[in-house]
């Protein structure tokens, strides 16, 4: 976001309060990232404690992804039904239960159950964090504030690496997995005093409450924004989930589902989950590989901050196009490094730099912008349900990549695997150029009004720049 926009928002009490609300809601992202990444270190010691077979080890690791897909499948409709605030409280409770169950698990079966429950909470969080922030933030800084959620995802992943390292000496995997209870409690306690989404309140007929929330989170006149919300609600057909099949919503659904799949099949989580494995194929030892992974995670956080600073200044499309283009170049070079470099000639650091470059470009484009866009482009009546459907597709693609990546490495080799991801990135770039709209500076109601008048997936809903 621009410096001028930031000063405008934080000048009054409403501006300061909306930052507090957004930062607290972004703890959903921290839990999402932490509980996703913590298993990478814990599994080393779980394997020893329970003497896991490779199949069972895979089930333990992927259990959270299965749970996340299930949580996302029901989470969207649930958030539409009970409200965003109560859904966040429910998500925090499920996180706590899953983390506690994993920490005390006496058997592998209980551990897997805890992982799946934790995964359900991850699925919930991947929907409700950006959804709540996008509906409560002013349009001028909505992109930056909503992207706080993705920033906290990267912080959560990095935090999990440090927690794994801190307890690796003692092999305390139960403490690693149970550590997620702490931010879950902080999120639940903090949200008790936070307001409900004004848009959800208005849709439920609670107009006075919606007006009160807007007064708390805005400086100046709120009636024009309230009038836009009123017009949007009155234009809804009232068919709920069935509206997802309406021709006028279909272009937005295509954009969301396409970006959800491309975000995964371009290889980001293959790198994040398997970076130590990839780097151990070079001259790196285990400790160097882990250190390199921490470096990659740090760059992921830093470049997400850059994206937050830029997304309301340059727009969503430019970040997606530049980020995806950079991913293509990084993956092409990575393939060449693994194809031709001498494993004993310092290729480890060269390979690390190509992976860092890939993650950096992902972190300014597909990483945060995907979650931001899907919180903006869907109509209020089906926003939760649409985000749920798109998030399910994202988690299923994540699961497919996580399971297939070791097979690809063994079957076609590391260079060809990176080139395959690069080819997927080329298609993602073309898809973005052809179909993805610009939403910078628009109210959610204005975006919906443009969508109702669109004639195809490439309809222009760009901001007035």
TrEMBL record:
One of its GO terms (cellular component) is membrane. Keywords: Membrane, Transmembrane, Transmembrane helix, Transport. It is a multi-pass membrane protein. It is found in: Membrane. InterPro entries: MFS_dom, MFS_sugar_transport-like, MFS_trans_sf, Myo-inositol_Transporter, Sugar/inositol_transpt, Sugar_transporter_CS. The keyword Membrane applies. The chain crosses the membrane at residues 17-46, 52-75, 87-106, 112-133, 145-167, 173-192, 252-275, 290-311, 318-341, 347-374, 386-409, 415-433. It comes from the Archaea. The keyword Transmembrane helix applies. Residues 21-440 form the Major facilitator superfamily (MFS) profile domain. Gene3D superfamilies: MFS general substrate transporter like domains. PANTHER family: PROTON MYO-INOSITOL COTRANSPORTER (PTHR48020:SF12). Belongs to the major facilitator superfamily. Sugar transporter (TC 2.A.1.1) family. This is MFS transporter. It comes from Halorubrum persicum.
């Amino acid at each position: 976001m621009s410096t001028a926009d930031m000063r405008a928002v934080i000048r009054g009490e409403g501006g300061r309060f909306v930052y507090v609300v957004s930062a607290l809601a972004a703890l959903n992202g921290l839990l999402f990232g932490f509980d996703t990444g913590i298993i990478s270190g814990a599994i080393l010691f779980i394997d020893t404690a329970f003497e896991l077979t490779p199949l069972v080890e895979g089930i333990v690791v992927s259990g959270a992804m299965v749970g996340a897909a299930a949580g996302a499948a029901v989470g969207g409709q649930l958030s539409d039904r009970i409200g965003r605030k109560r859904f966040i409280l429910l998500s925090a409770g499920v996180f706590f239960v899953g983390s506690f169950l994993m920490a005390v698990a006496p058997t592998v079966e209980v551990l897997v159950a805890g992982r799946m429950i934790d995964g359900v909470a991850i699925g919930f969080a991947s929907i409700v964090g950006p959804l709540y922030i996008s509906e409560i933030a002013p349009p001028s800084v909505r992109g930056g504030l909503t992207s706080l959620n993705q920033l906290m995802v990267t912080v959560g992943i990095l935090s999990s690496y440090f927690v794994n390292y801190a307890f690796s000496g003692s092999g305390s995997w139960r403490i690693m997995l149970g550590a997620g209870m702490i931010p879950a409690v902080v999120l639940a306690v903090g949200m008790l005093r936070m307001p409900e989404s004004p848009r959800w309140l208005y849709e439920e007929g609670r107009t006075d409450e919606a007006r009160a929330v807007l007064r708390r989170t805005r400086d100046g006149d709120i009636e024009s924004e309230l009038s836009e919300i009123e017009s949007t609600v009155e234009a809804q057909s009232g068919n709920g989930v069935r509206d997802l099949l309406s021709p006028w919503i279909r272009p937005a659904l295509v954009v969301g589902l396409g970006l959800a799949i491309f975000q995964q099949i371009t290889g980001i989580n293959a790198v994040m989950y398997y970076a130590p494995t990839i780097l151990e194929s070079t001259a790196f030892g285990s400790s160097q590989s882990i250190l390199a992974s921490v470096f990659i995670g740090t760059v992921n956080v830093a470049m997400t901050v850059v994206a937050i600073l830029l997304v309301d200044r340059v727009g969503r499309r430019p970040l997606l196009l530049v980020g995806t283009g950079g991913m293509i170049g990084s993956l092409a070079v990575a393939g060449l490094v693994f194809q031709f470099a001498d494993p004993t000639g310092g290729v480890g650091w060269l390979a690390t730099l190509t992976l860092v470059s890939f993650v950096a470009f992902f972190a300014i484009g597909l990483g945060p912008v995907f979650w931001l866009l899907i919180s903006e482009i869907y109509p209020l009546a089906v926003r939760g349900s649409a985000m749920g459907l798109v998030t399910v597709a994202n988690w299923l693609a994540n699961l497919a990549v996580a399971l297939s990546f070791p097979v690809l490495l063994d079957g076609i080799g590391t260079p060809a695997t990176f080139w395959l991801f690069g080819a997927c990135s080329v298609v993602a770039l073309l898809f973005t150029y052809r179909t993805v709209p610009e939403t910078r500076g628009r109210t959610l109601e204005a975006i919906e009004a443009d969508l109702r008048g669109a004639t195809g997936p490439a309809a222009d809903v760009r901001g007035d720049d």
